[in-house]
Amino acid sequence: MAKKATNPTKSLKIPKIIIISAKICAFISTNLVTKFAAKIFTTPIKHKVPKRELEMDAKSIQKLIYIPEIDKSVVTYTYGQSPSKVLLVHGWSGRGTQLFKIADELLANGYSTVSFDAPAHGKSKGKTTIMSEFIASILEIEKQFGPFEIAIGHSLGGMSVLNSIKDGLKVEKAIIIGSGDIVQDILDEFTFKLGLKKEISIHLRDYFENMYQVKMDDFSAYKAAKKIKTPVLVIHDKDDPEVSVKAGIHINENLENGSLFLTEGLGHRKILGNQNVIKKILEFIKIS
Question: Domain AB hydrolase-1 spans what residues (predicted)?
Fold first, then answer.
């Protein structure tokens, strides 16, 4: 059995200063707190590349590419030279090298990988972004680096992979790890962590819909899953403190050709480096 993660029920906390600021904004006006929450929601944290990812960072061919649909550029990482390519998509506040253990095993099994720093992440410029920009980046990367045999996404990257397949990304198989599901649930959880009333999450949804001229629920993973015939392996940890395991189960229930692999004690990020998880990924990929 996998080792229990330290404090598996504890998710990443929002700094107290942001929570206090949100409450002050809420006291002043609903409009102000909605704009403040939108800014926080769309601003990822840029982390320094950890030592464990430096080898992939150093050995990858890095290229800055332009994404016309969103008028932004992203940094891509090509790791290995095999024509059998796998697309890797990190999650919120992640990096193109975050799935390095999976990438290393794929290289050892005859694949190469292409990953990227999403807008406002890693080495890509910008301060704010949203899922639709992840999706636009994936579809442009397919044009420039594809075709891909497999797509693997973690967290928001999992939601983005499913939505990209719905929107035309062609892969033989997909794997999503710790993926979010219903957009409104994500907004509800976010406003709860900010210490705000639930009604603010509705205002936040409306704010984004007006700004981006989209229906936020159209990006919910289960909705994309309903339209996908591609075989998809859904991996989720029962103790994930950031994305409830209910999300993975619900996504799988809506897939025509899905399979579900649940782990214990790995949380939201340790799952990416677990050998049993990686073994399951390779087994799934190799099944004809």
Answer: 86-179
Q: Where are the domains of the chain?
A: 12-41+183-219, 48-182+227-286
> Pseudo-torsion of CA 206, 212, 217, 220, nearest 10°?
-140
Residue 198 per-residue DSSP state? T
pLDDT at residue 12, rounded to an integer: 57
Within 13 Å of residue 105, how many CA atoms lie on the same side as its CB? 18
pTM: 0.92
Do residues 134 and 157 make contact, with C-beta atoms less than 8 angstroms apart? yes
Q: Is 23 exposed, middle or buried (0-12, 13-18, 19+ CB in 10 A)?
A: middle
The percentage of the chain sitting over the pLDDT mark of 70, rounded to a whole number, equals 95
* 154 membership: H or E segment, kind and range: strand 150-154
Sign of the CA dihedral 35, 247, 279, 10? Answer: positive
Report helix, strand or coil for 75: strand
CATH for 48-182+227-286? 3.40.50.1820
Q: Kindly provide the b/e burial profile for residues 112-151, where b requires at least 16 CB atoms within 10 angstroms of the residue's own CB.
A: bbbbbbbbbbbbbebeebbbbbbbbbbbbbbeebbebbbb
